[in-house]
């Protein structure tokens, strides 16, 4: 089971610190969907299935365009969180997996979406299910984001890489997050879903939009506008909270229960030490002392959006 599905995983923390998605992304997905259907309805139309719905963000954002919505997640914690945050009666939140959609009739879904989730699917089972339930002319849209950079601060990127992916201990006696990433899921996401190949017999009009920032420069000069949808101005303290939603961090935490964060009364966990180094390399952040968490930065993530039409 994925770490996100464990009872110890904080779904509330995930909802609080994970970045949301901008309207431009949802508009792009709906534009692709409507173009392939040959119509752009002026009122809610059709059915939506949100796979790996998490706390229900995507289902709630897209619900106004559809008459019915099913939001599905394998994690009981995430389903509970989604139900707490979702009040729209047209949205049904339920527990389940992309590999088993037997509760849905054949040819019953117009659009299937998966935000930050498709890299966990077993597509040997998911593709047949999707082909069965999606109507002819219907569409799917899978998207994800990975590995942020802080604009204007490329000096922070090597520190992130060392603590998150480094093979050597980033500090003596404390291992990095590297061995705790759930594979192959993380690699599939970091490689922009290139191995996620819709079967040609079932899908056409395949469109893949992917981009990774230049992590040595810390800028977005080469970013195509259609790929530059995951960016956010946030405080360093919020970025710290976001890193603690990583599945790898929760795996690391379970393996090192004695290494507690300073907020929990310990001497510091791996995120504390990562931010010690991060703050130290930017003079104005270091000068802020204990107020560094209130400093605002702009984070930009690499992105991928994969869409296709049902034949």
UniProtKB/TrEMBL annotation:
CDD domains for this protein: AdoMet_MTases
UniProt keyword terms in alphabetical order: Methyltransferase, Transferase
GO aspect biological process, one term: methylation
InterPro entries hit by this protein: Diverse_substrate_MTase, Methyltransf_11, SAM-dependent_MTases_sf
SUPFAM superfamilies: S-adenosyl-L-methionine-dependent methyltransferases
Pfam hit, one: Methyltransf_11
UniProt domain Methyltransferase type: residue ranges: 49-142
GO molecular function term, any single one: S-adenosylmethionine-dependent methyltransferase activity
Assigned protein family: Belongs to the methyltransferase superfamily.
Name of the protein: Methyltransferase-like protein
